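Long-time lurker, first post. I've been practising inverse folding by hand and with some scripts of my own, and I keep getting stuck on stretches where the structure tokens seem ambiguous. Below is the full token string for one chain I'm working on. Before anyone asks, I'm not after the true native sequence, just a reasonable design that respects the backbone. If someone could post their per-position residues I'd love to compare against what I wrote down in my notebook.
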């Protein structure tokens, strides 16, 4: 009799072996405490800032006799607290929103929102590079989902190589489709899902154009823009209020997601919305209803980080970060111009970075990341299926606490790796059999056959 556990383990081993053979096997790793961080999402370095840590510990000591380590229940049972509700009000006011609802993570916030907000017959139109949590939420929803080409609002924005249409083309198709009359009249809602800053490419959404496009196509007001500000919270906009506030679009965005585990240096998330939507999520968002609420220590950490931002103490950190972004780009650009490597080996975007996230595109991303790690710089390779095929990269994340010397050291490691790869490629090419000049198609074919037969 076959042991089902053994059989299942064999199946898993086969799947893992296949993934490993394609160089796509994920593993948990521990970071060397002495390595320089160019990988985490803590863009302002708040999680380790001495002033914030002191303020946090001080607040815990003041409240030592008043709090428990955990909430021991969901918000709807025994996990709700005065502090949680006050924090929601404070954060909503900071981001200039009417209301907010806390979640334990950005992932839970997105799955909760997208799984219950769309009603039967509604649509979710989403940027093709939207986060995995939005995809999982959409799968749980009753909506029909349609992607559009990344950051492409109009047809002219779409590259010839893209198989997807622009946002405007998708919306026009909806108004002209089988549900066109219901969509146009407002009987069907259309939710448009985008991110403020995209985590893998570091580019900023053309949010103003997106909002204008949606408002033009849905004059009845049934087009609802949702912005995931996970990677724009804390550093983008006045006092880190995010992209929506930077553009003054607070009243034209249906819902915003802000997370606290990246630039804020904590954990958790909040959905900013109307009071009615907040009440709806409390009743229908399963990732809120059936999970234990955040306890006092984490709520205090979030409040401490927001107090730091609101007081303007992070302004100097942001200034350092922006300067570092420019200096890093100039160094990388200099390396690219110096060696002019083939794009499949190493390439950076030609425009200055819009965020602290700088992708270093390479078909040998794992090799490049390993080399940098061995030189004392933590960067991570990001490969398919996390990113689309053919867009493997090393994800470089800058932080306010990184120094110019650290950036120069990392760039030296990148240059060293690039020199080695180009030298090896040149040596390999020198070993190839010379191909004689050919003047006719028949001769060209003969040379190819001859060369292949000798290899």
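-- Answer (accepted) --
I ran through it position by position. Result:
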């Amino acid at each position: 009799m076959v042991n089902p556990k053994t059989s299942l383990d064999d199946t898993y081993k086969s799947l893992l072996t296949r993934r490993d053979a394609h160089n796509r096997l994920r593993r948990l790793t521990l970071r060397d405490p002495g390595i320089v961080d160019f990988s985490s999402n803590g863009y302002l370095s708040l999680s380790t800032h001495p002033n914030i840590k002191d303020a946090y510990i001080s607040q815990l000591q003041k409240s030592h006799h008043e709090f428990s380590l955990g909430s021991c229940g969901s918000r709807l049972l025994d996990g709700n607290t005065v502090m949680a509700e006050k924090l929601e009000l404070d954060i909503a006011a900071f981001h200039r929103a009417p209301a907010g609802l806390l979640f334990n993570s950005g992932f839970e916030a997105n799955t909760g929102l997208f799984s219950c907000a769309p009603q039967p017959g509604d649509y979710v139109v989403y940027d093709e590079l939207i986060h995995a949590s939005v995809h999982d939420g959409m799968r749980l929803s009753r909506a029909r989902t349609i992607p559009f080409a990344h950051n492409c609002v109009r047809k002219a924005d779409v590259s010839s190589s893209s198989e997807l249409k622009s946002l405007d083309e998708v919306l026009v198709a909806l108004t002209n489709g089988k549900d066109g009359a219901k969509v146009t009249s407002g009987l069907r809602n259309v939710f448009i899902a985008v991110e403020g800053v995209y985590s893998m490419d570091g580019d900023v959404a053309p949010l103003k154009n997106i909002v204008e496009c949606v408002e033009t196509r849905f004059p009845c007001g049934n087009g609802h823009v949702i912005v995931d500000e996970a990677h724009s919270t804390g550093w983008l906009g006045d006092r880190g209020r995010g992209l929506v506030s930077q553009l003054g679009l607070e009243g034209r965005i249906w819902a915003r997601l802000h997370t606290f585990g990246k630039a804020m240096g904590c954990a958790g998330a909040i959905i900013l919305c109307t009071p009615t939507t907040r009440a709806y999520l409390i009743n229908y968002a399963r990732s809120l209803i059936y999970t234990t609420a955040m306890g006092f220590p984490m709520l205090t950490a979030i409040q401490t980080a927001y107090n730091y931002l609101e007081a303007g103490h992070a302004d100097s950190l942001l200034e350092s970060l922006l300067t570092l972004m420019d200096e890093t780009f100039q160094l990388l650009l200099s390396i690219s111009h110096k060696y002019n490597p083939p794009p499949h080996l190493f390439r950076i975007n030609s425009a200055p970075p819009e965020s602290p996230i700088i992708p270093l595109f390479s078909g040998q991303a794992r090799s490049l990341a390993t080399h940098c790690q061995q030189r004392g710089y933590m960067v991570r390779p990001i490969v398919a299926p996390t990113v689309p095929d053919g867009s493997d990269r090393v994800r470089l994340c800058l932080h306010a606490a990184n120094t110019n010397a650290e950036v120069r050291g990392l760039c030296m490691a990148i240059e060293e790796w690039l020199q080695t790869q180009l030298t090896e490629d040149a040596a390999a090419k020198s070993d190839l059999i010379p191909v004689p000049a050919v003047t006719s198609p028949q001769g060209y074919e003969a040379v190819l056959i001859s060369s292949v037969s000798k290899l």
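A couple of notes from the structure itself: DSSP finds 16 helices and twelve strands in the chain. The longest strand covers residues 190-195. Happy to go over any region you disagree with.
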